[in-house]
From TrEMBL, chain A:
CDD domains: ABC_NikE_OppD_transporters. It is found in: Cell membrane. It comes from Streptantibioticus parmotrematis. Residues 19-268 form the ABC transporter domain. This is ABC transporter ATP-binding protein. Its main location: membrane. The keyword Aminoacyl-tRNA synthetase does not apply.
UniProtKB/TrEMBL annotation, chain B:
It is found in: Cell membrane. It comes from Streptantibioticus parmotrematis. The chain crosses the membrane at residues 12-31, 96-118, 130-154, 174-192, 228-254, 274-300. Coiled coil: none annotated. This is ABC transporter permease.
From TrEMBL, chain C:
Residues 1-54 are annotated as: Disordered. Coiled coil: none annotated. The chain crosses the membrane at residues 69-86, 134-157, 169-188, 248-266, 302-323. It is a multi-pass membrane protein. This is ABC transporter permease. InterPro entries: BP-dependent_transpt_permease (IPR050366), MetI-like (IPR000515), MetI-like_sf (IPR035906), OppC_N (IPR025966). It is found in: Cell membrane.
Length: 339, 307, 332
């Protein structure tokens, strides 16, 4: 059967980021935790890829490796390539790679309160991007900061540019994070659960702003989330991760229509739905595996309702389901055909 | 802000009274200043009574204390039993001790922060463990031991400095005594900086700074160190008062006639006005240093605002 | 609005810093150490722990036995305690039997460290000096720890005016530099035993322990399991003894261990200044003081007691440091 482990799913000419067979491990006192075990995905210019998974699935670690902000030690990239605009970031000299960060690819973090420096003004932190990457003077950089704050619709930007992060509300702080990421109009934005820490009422506003700016500037976006509702609205494609691997990747609508992996299926069925009101909510049984002790075979097998002998011994490769779809389940055909 | 300062000043009043009263009671009630004045000779009862009356010693202790404090706040620190006004002693002793303290503070701040940053950035490596053990060793060697050993090595064995400080005590001669005085605090600043750097190094905003593509020196100095220094600066601020009061041993070793030396002489000779006068000023310096540090905290960390 | 004197604030607890003694060092430990609730650490990210969870204490013990710093300092301390109880184990001479003719002589057969100013055997005096140091250290620490944790613990638990009064009182003690206080207090005492020195150290040492205990109790009080016990109808005594004390005791033990080292240094400093222990008590501080005037002619007189003193203080501080690291999973 055709597999996708080594080759990109769809050969494209406009590929922006191409992660190939990435392995990351954490060497701790209690043993080696294999956080990422052969992840491959690609993002095209202007495309939005949503990466889905539980905490500990390796979705954040993968993008940290892409960004080059892995805590090292204990984290190490042990294998793979990260091609950004055709260049391998992992073999690039440190200083050259630093210049890519912030300018060509930028990141939005989950908790803006802790991700912004508490003792520096937001104006300083925004302006720093221009001072460092563009060699601007402090004064010009500050003017740019005001402009950016206007752009992410922070009221009275001119008056608030000298305020500190804790003086803003959660939603406003996340807007500042977005402004910081957009500052130098990078090609790729990585947003690590950008709305998780916000109130539900603000989540939609921030998400809309992000989607709008992304469209305006034509950037690629990797959106890490566990909110399937958000995914359906903004993503073009989805990659589902489990225990450090991609278990399914597909265009967003295909996945909602017919998941090709039992884990994806479980995730979708565990969303409360109005049309199934009154029925018991589905829950995936068991717990995610410890990364120091991943089960042999398919990592999902102890929790999988359709697991058989083969699943306990043989690691499933990423099978090609359609031209732009892959599933890491030996029995994906049964899974798709189920519905 | 203004209300906060006033509240803190009010809180300082009982502490000031408590500390000075404690010392006052120790000096005047536990010892007998008049007997001390006469040394081994038995004083003539009439003369002794007259002296007691002159020195306000014939009143109950609390009245003596009130009388004494009232005098101090009029600028009258009394006369040492050898006839010298305490104020004269102070005017020669304080400049020496202040200079010594400045040297010590600069030494502990500069070396301590550099070492702490250095080892904090290399957490868990050999350099880090080495610095940590070194700080423990420095803390374990009491000042009077390190003082004599350094004085012997630098002053006698290698003949690099004058082992005894001249009465004028220029800064150059105070370098070695300043280091000796600062050693324990230096170890403390090093560890505090290290701990703070290690904690902040894992902070999200440092990760953000790296993700912004800032050069390493900028990440370390502007983001990491700037935040890590908050507890360190407040420690150093409080330490100023403590160093002044703690210079007794150092001043004795290097024969510096500063506050510590005068206090030591005053205590051994039961020279009560000297002791209480110097201690009162020390307590005030200590309290004001603490208040300033609290206010400095707000400047360093904008999250703290005083109601 | 938060006050600046939060748990982070080291400024609060360093009142008697740098005063020749080394009282301030233990204060550092307090900031970073509040007892975590049992079993809250060592869970790898996203994983489940296998095997039975270990308690804070057995986990700490597990770590300590493998820590060379702990093993070495513990062995040194055991050795010190042994020779302070039975100095004859390793020294057969009499520390007070001196021969003035041998004043400042160098090492001789049977006298490996040479002789001091009075012609006493430096080796014997160094061995016998351990007794005074260990006695003062242990008794003063026990006294300060008991007094401090009871007063501080109650203040942390009940709060209110009792807490306010206690805070002001400890402020008063922190306002007095400790060596200075020792000079004033002990210079008028004529008793030559170790007890006035111990009493003085307890008097100025307890507020430091009280602050740690107060902070630890206040932290432990916030924990959910304490609220749960209260909701289940447990009384104050039961909550304090069963739920809070076991969790608040770790920081107190760490600080007390380190304080023990600094108290020994403090005793030596006071003896050096002539107000601590007095002859005929054999004390490293006194011997160092005598030796200091002769350092040019006979450095060996200073070297041995100073070395013994430093190693002793170091052993206790390192022990406390190792215990702190083992009990504080945050700093791994």
């Amino acid at each position: 059967m055709d597999t996708l482990t080594e080759s990109p799913l769809v050969p494209r000419t406009d590929t922006l980021l191409d992660v190939r067979d990435l392995h990351v491990e954490f060497r701790t006192r209690d043993g080696i935790a294999k956080a990422v075990n052969g992840v491959s995905y690609a993002v095209a210019r202007g495309e939005t890829l949503a990466v889905l998974g539980e905490s500990g699935s390796g979705k954040s670690v993968t993008v940290q490796a892409v960004m080059g902000i892995l805590d090292s030690p204990p984290g190490f990239v042990t294998r793979g390539e990260i091609l950004f605009r055709g260049e391998n970031l992992l073999t690039m000299p440190a200083d050259q790679r630093r210049k890519v960060r912030g300018a060509k690819m930028a990141m939005i973090f989950q908790d803006a309160l802790s991700a912004l420096n508490p003792v520096l003004t937001v104006g300083y932190q925004l302006g720093e991007m221009f001072v460092v990457h563009r060699g601007m003077s402090r004064r010009d950089a500050r003017a740019m900061a005001v402009e950016l704050m206007d752009r992410v619709r922070i009221p009275a930007a001119r008056q608030r540019v000298g305020d500190y992060p804790h003086q803003f509300s959660g939603g406003m702080r996340q807007r500042i994070m977005i402004a910081m990421a957009m500052a130098l109009e990078p090609d790729l934005i990585i947003a690590d659960e950008p709305t998780t820490a916000l109130d539900v009422t603000v989540q939609a506003q921030v998400m809309d702003l992000l989607a709008e700016l992304r469209q305006e500037m034509g950037m690629g976006l990797i959106l890490i989330t566990h909110d399937l509702g958000v995914v359906a609205d903004v993503a073009d494609r989805i990659a589902v991760m489990y225990a450090g691997r991609i278990v399914e990747t597909a265009p967003v609508h295909d996945i909602y229509r017919a998941p090709a992996h039992p884990y994806t299926k479980g995730l979708l069925e565990s969303i409360p739905r109005l049309d199934r009101k009154g029925k018991e909510l589905y829950a995936i049984r068991g717990l995610p595996p410890s990364l120091t002790d991943v089960p042999p075979g398919c990592a999902f097998n102890p929790r999988c309702p359709m697991a058989r002998e083969r699943c306990r011994t043989e690691v499933p490769p990423l099978y090609r389901v359609t031209a732009e779809r892959g599933s890491a389940c030996h029995y994906w055909e049964e899974c798709v055909g189920d519905d | 802000m203004g209300r906060y300062v006033i509240r803190r000043l009010l809180q300082m009043v009982p502490v000031f009274i408590g500390s000075t009263l404690l010392i006052f009671v120790m000096v005047y009630a536990l010892g007998d200043p008049v007997a001390a004045l006469f040394g081994d000779r038995a004083p003539d009862p009439a003369t002794a009574a007259q002296i007691r009356k002159d020195l306000y010693l014939d009143h109950p202790l609390w009245q003596q204390y009130v009388h004494y404090m009232a005098q101090i706040f009029q600028g009258n620190f009394g006369t040492a039993f050898d006839g010298q006004p305490v104020l004269t002693l102070m005017s020669t002793a304080w400049p020496l001790t202040i200079r010594l303290t400045i040297v010590a503070v600069v030494v502990e701040a500069v070396i301590g922060v550099v070492l702490g940053l250095f080892s904090g950035l290399r957490r868990g490596r050999t350099v880090d463990s080495g610095v940590l053990v070194l700080t423990l060793v420095v803390v374990s060697v009491p000042t009077f031991v390190s003082g004599y050993v350094l004085q012997y090595l630098f002053g006698v064995e290698w003949n690099l400095v004058n082992p005894s400080v001249s009465p004028a005590a220029p800064f150059s001669e105070l370098l070695l005594p300043g280091i000796v005085l600062a050693l324990v605090s230096l170890a403390y600043v090093t560890r505090l900086t290290r701990t703070s750097v290690v904690e902040n190094h894992r902070a999200d905003y440092v990760r953000t700074a790296i993700a912004k593509g800032l050069p390493r020196h900028r990440v370390v100095l502007r983001h990491l160190l700037r935040n890590s220094l908050i507890p360190v600066v407040t420690f150093i601020g409080t330490d100023i008062g403590a160093l002044m009061g703690g210079a007794i041993v150092t001043e004795r070793i290097f024969n510096i006639h500063g506050v510590g030396y005068q206090l030591y002489q005053g205590i051994l000779r039961q020279n009560s006005p000297t002791v209480v006068g110097f201690v009162t000023i020390l307590v005030i310096v200590f309290l004001i240093a603490n208040l300033l540090v609290d206010l400095l905290y707000a400047v360093l960390d904008p999250r703290i605002r005083y109601a | 609005m938060p006050e600046p004197s939060s748990a982070q604030d080291p400024a609060e607890s360093v009142g008697n810093a740098g005063a020749g003694g080394t009282m301030d060092f233990a204060a550092e430990q307090a900031g970073s150490l509040t007892a975590p609730p049992p079993g809250e650490h060592l869970v790898p990210e996203g994983g489940t722990t296998t095997g039975k969870p270990r308690s804070l204490w057995s986990d700490a013990w597990h770590d300590l036995r493998r820590n060379p710093v702990f093993v070495v300092s513990a062995l040194v301390i055991v050795f010190l305690v042994l020779i302070s109880i039975w100095p004859k184990l390793i020294a057969s001479g009499n520390p007070l039997a001196c021969d003035i003719n041998k004043s400042q002589d160098g090492p001789a057969p049977g006298h490996p460290f040479g002789f001091d100013l009075q012609g006493c055997d430096v080796y014997t005096r160094t061995v016998y000096g351990a007794r005074a140091s260990v006695t003062v250290g242990v008794c003063a620490t026990a006294g300060a720890a008991i007094l401090g944790s009871v007063l501080g613990g109650l203040a942390g638990f009940f709060g209110g005016w009792w807490d306010a009064v206690l805070s002001r009182i400890s402020d008063v003690f922190f306002g007095i530099p400790i060596v200075l206080g020792g000079l004033v207090f002990l210079s008028v005492v004529t008793n030559t035993t170790v007890w006035p020195v111990i009493g003085f150290i307890v008097l100025l040492g307890w507020p430091q322990i009280a602050r740690i205990a107060r902070g630890a109790v206040m932290t432990a009080k916030q924990h959910d399991y304490v609220q749960a016990a209260r909701a289940l109808g447990a009384g104050n005594t039961r909550i304090l003894l069963r739920h809070i004390a076991p969790n608040a005791v770790a920081p107190v033990i760490v600080v007390a261990t380190i304080a023990l080292g600094t108290y020994i240094a403090l005793e030596a400093t006071l003896s050096f200044l002539g107000v601590g222990l007095k002859p005929p008590t054999v004390s490293w501080g006194i011997d160092i003081s005598t030796a200091s005037t002769e350092i040019r002619d006979a450095p060996h007189m200073l070297l041995w007691p100073a070395g013994a003193l430093s190693v002793t203080v170091l052993a206790f501080i390192m022990l406390g440091d190792a215990v702190r690291d083992a009990l504080d999973p945050k700093l791994r």
